[in-house]
Amino acid sequence: MGIMEKMRLDGKKIFVTGGARGIGMNYAQAVAEAGADVAIVDMDIAAAEATAKRLAAETGRTFIAVQADVTDPASVDAMMETILEKFGRLDAAFCNAGICINVPAEEMSYETWKKVIDVNLNGIFLTNIAAGKQMLKQGHGSIINTASMSAHIVNVPQPQCAYNASKAGVIQLTKSLAIEWATRGVRVNSISPGYIGTDLTLNSPSLIPLIEQWNAMAPMHRLGKPEELQAIAVYLAGDASPFTTGSDFVIDGAFTCF
Hints:
By secondary structure, this protein is an alpha/beta fold. Helix content is about 45%, strand content about 15%. The protein contains nine helices and seven strands; from the N terminus they run αβαβαβαβαβαβαααβ. The protein has helices at about 5, 20-35, 45-60, 75-85, 110-140, 160-180, 200, 210-215, 230-235, and strands at about 15, 35-40, 65, 90-95, 140-145, 185-195, 250. The protein has a seven-stranded parallel β-sheet, with helices on both faces. Helix 5 links the parallel strand 4 and strand 5. Helix 2 (about 20-35) packs across helix 9 (about 230-235), helix 4 (about 75-85) packs parallel to helix 5 (about 110-140) and helix 5 runs parallel beside helix 6 (about 160-180). It starts with a helix and ends in a 7-residue tail after the last strand. About 45% of the residues are buried.
């Protein structure tokens, strides 16, 4: 099988949490263009349905929309039941849902801390375990977690200690599960994006003033584009990466190199 064939995902069944918009939507688009059928999982079911409808029309692949709260074990279990009922199996899972709340540490409430950790780390754990159980039964599968360059550096000037800590936890969880499942056919990797110019970032009143500072600090003097994460997503989801597990891929335009 040639490399271009290995990069195809024809007939594979994949879910993407936080898939209605932003990075998750771009993951979904990429794997569908490579031939996969995709479940768009999101808290906002209306947005998930709209994204699923649009991408199905654009790619010709089968899309379903599933509502789920990644912090709720029962909701995650129901998500998996729906996906397996529709697709019959699960070949790859992009556990991508996340939030960031910028508050100075000394002013951050414990409730805010817990909210960020719950979505960004506990949510990754719950969706990894749900996907992993099915993949272990099958004897194959690939899990891809969205971490962040914030797992490697402390971002400035915005104060985001909870986000940074949660994303560092994602990478260590990824490595831990990769080791546990290495001989059982299930691979687990993470992608650590740098500053990415999603619609949310570009239109957020709190972030717009920071973009100029981020660009000044960045070696490439620009934000990344969501589509610049698509190739690594396709690589990790399919047969081109059978020896790749326990790895974190930093896609940040060299921001963390200094």
